Amino acid sequence: MLTIRTFQPTDAEAVRQLFARGQLDFALGTDLEAPVRAYIDRSLSEDLADIPANYQNHSGNNFWVADLAGQVRGMVGIQKRSEAEAELRRMSVARDSRRQGIGWKLLETVEEFCREHGYSQIFLTTVSQLVPAISMYQKYGFQLSELERYGVMSVHRYIKYL
Questions:
Q1: Which residues have a Cβ under 8 Å from the Cβ of 2 and sit 6 or more positions away?
Q2: Do 122 and 162 form a contact (C-beta atoms < 8 A)?
Q3: Measured distance CA(13)–CA(27) in Å, rounded
Q4: Closest CA to 60 of 116, 125, 142, 4
Q5: Which CATH number is 98's domain given?
Q6: Quick check: 82 pLDDT over 90?
Q7: Cα(114)–Cα(93) distance, rounded to whole angstroms?
């Protein structure tokens, strides 16, 4: 049975591995591999190095995992950026668990949290190679608000008004 629950420190290693694998799924063997590996290393040494300090340090922030039979199969974080705006971060679902509704349930959890905390919008940033994620975000009501080149990638910024 799938449970979306708040991150616990015992989830840290599973979350770090899920993040790295999720990013590499779309970059291995391409010209994006080197910059994606650098991004993974930076993320793992910055906010994902201490999830409680970065995502659970304020009532307007949180981090959840999708727990399926005791295994972390998905993850997402939310961080307050202003009184009105929250940023969805680090969304990932394990390759063998995709297309089973886990990402959608994580988005529902984030939206409910944001509404409860008075946010009027949620934004996220993603990259062009994450086509399945972009499709899900669009189906969920996120709208493209900005597109820019960043080295060998295109960076997409999406926003959802609540």
A1: 66, 67, 68, 73, 101, 102, 105
A2: yes
A3: 21
A4: 116
A5: 3.40.630.30
A6: yes
A7: 21
Cβ atoms of 76 and 89 closer than 8 Å:
yes
What pLDDT, on the 0 to 100 scale, is given for residue 63?
A: 98
Domain that holds residue 54: 2-161
- 0.90 cut: is pTM over it? yes
**pLDDT of 59 higher than 90:** yes
Cβ partners under 8 Å of residue 159, min gap 6: 121, 122, 123, 142, 143, 145
Q: How far apart are CA 15 and CA 44, in angstroms?
A: 10
- Token pair recorded at residue 117: 């905390």
> How many separate domains does the chain show?
1
Give the residue ranges of DSSP H helices in 25-77.
33-45, 51-55
pLDDT the model gives residue 153: 77
Residue 41 tokens, joined: 């290393």
What does the CA dihedral 131, 134, 135, 141 come to, rounded to 10 degrees?
180
